[in-house]
Design goal:
Shape: elongated
Oligomer: single chain
Number of helices: 4
Distance between the termini: 35 Å
Radius of gyration: 19 Å
């Protein structure tokens, strides 16, 4: 499912002028397939569950790099989204942020590419967590945690009652705040509708019909 969504988004991305660049050439979906295969090949069983690589270096031939040059940033973001979706589907855990870097190598022949992956643990101290319905945990650090239907949200949810960008969790010193981002159906904490609220350990956050639990703080 994740790669199908990736392919549909890529098809929209390369409509019009970009579409000509892909006829009979290396297809972005091939990168997505290889990236998810890297995750499957290099996953590891740890005390934190099935841990998958989260840092990927994609190397293209110079010809392909030039063809992709106009939308490399968008392609990198979509590959990050594909990795996150594959992790959710397979029950993988990441130990740090997912990143994809794309570079060129003049030694590679046209339509060839390489992907190297590794597990890089986030070194920032995390004292608070969002527990998802499947018991996976998302750490609350210095960066905001976004919740919504968009695949680039930190916590993407396949809940039709959730807005595209529904809510955000921010740390301010030792305190953690939940902020509704003008969602259609609102955000609740322990059953009470909120616009902004400081979170406490054990609070239940409800967006749409999805319940998340806050730990720590």
């Amino acid at each position: 499912m994740g790669l199908q969504q990736f392919e549909r988004r890529l098809e929209r991305m390369v409509e019009g002028a970009f579409a000509r660049a892909f006829r009979g050439e290396l297809q972005p979906i091939e990168l997505g397939r290889r990236l998810t295969r890297e995750m499957d090949l290099h996953r590891a069983v740890t005390v934190r569950g099935l841990v998958a690589p989260n840092v990927f270096d994609v190397v293209l031939s110079e010809d392909d790099y030039e063809r992709f040059l106009g939308f490399l940033d968008a392609l990198s973001k979509e590959l990050v989204n594909a990795a996150r979706e594959h992790a959710r589907n397979e029950g993988y855990t990441f130990l740090g942020p997912v990143t994809v870097e794309i570079a060129a190598d003049k030694e590679l022949p046209k339509s060839s590419f390489e992907i190297a992956s590794e597990v890089v643990e986030h070194t920032e101290t995390v004292a608070a967590w969002i527990v998802l319905p499947d018991d996976q945990k998302v750490g609350v650090g210095s960066e905001p945690v976004t919740i919504g239907r968009m695949p680039d949200c930190t916590v993407p949810l396949a809940d039709p009652n959730v807005s595209r960008r529904h809510a955000e969790i921010r740390r301010d010193g030792d305190n953690v705040y939940l902020i509704d981002l003008g969602s259609t159906n609102g955000t609740r904490v322990n059953g009470v509708a909120i616009h902004q609220r400081q979170l406490a350990d054990g609070d239940v956050i409800t967006v749409g019909i999805t319940a998340l639990r806050f730990e720590g703080g």
